[in-house]
Amino acid sequence: MQANASQQAQTISASVAGTYSSLVDGYESILTKEQALALTPSAFHALAPASADQTAVGKLITDSTWYFVTALPQEQAQGLKVNHSVTVRFARSLPDAVHMTVTSISEPENGEVVVVFSCNRYLDQITLMRQTSADIIASSYSGLRIPKESLRVLEDGTVGVYCMAGLQAEFRQVEIIYEGDSFYLVSISTESKGLKAGDQVFVVGEALYSGKVFS
Prior knowledge:
By secondary structure, this protein is mainly beta. The chain has helices spanning 33-37, 41-45, 123-126, and strands spanning 19-21, 59-61, 66-73, 85-90, 98-105, 112-119, 134-137, 144-147, 152-153, 159-165, 168-173, 176-179, 183-186.
């Protein structure tokens, strides 16, 4: 490294251990943890960096917890609760959804609130990230997605779908978890004759019944 250096190498020592970041942009003194937790919506929108130290060769991050601060419409933040966990999917820097804790929610101002999220993982992947967009996922559902047209209701009120089992139609009871515009999300069955991923479901068809043979 010394041989390839364009100028004489220099040793820089730090008094404490931490994670190094080459980014120094003037926000270091503006967005401290204490200041972030005290932000109001108007103060958030007025944030501007201070003059960056042009002589700095980087900065040292001495805490493993990092924070994501954003302003949200008050109605969108109603489902968020302090100390509860949510999933955040960032537009860049992090490829996977991140589980974060709601650290604080400000008082509403002009229909907005400032929400601060925290996380103690992936620090090494976000040291160069300052501003980004993100999707905040307060809740999610898991199951099998079926077209609404495939759902059948028997005379006794049992809800299910008809599937192909060999060359025969077979009725399989389902439990609806979530309803979308054109689909239902139904539970995955653990029973041998329950609905599972990969089953062929009848979307159209008349006079269907279990045991009906198809050529």
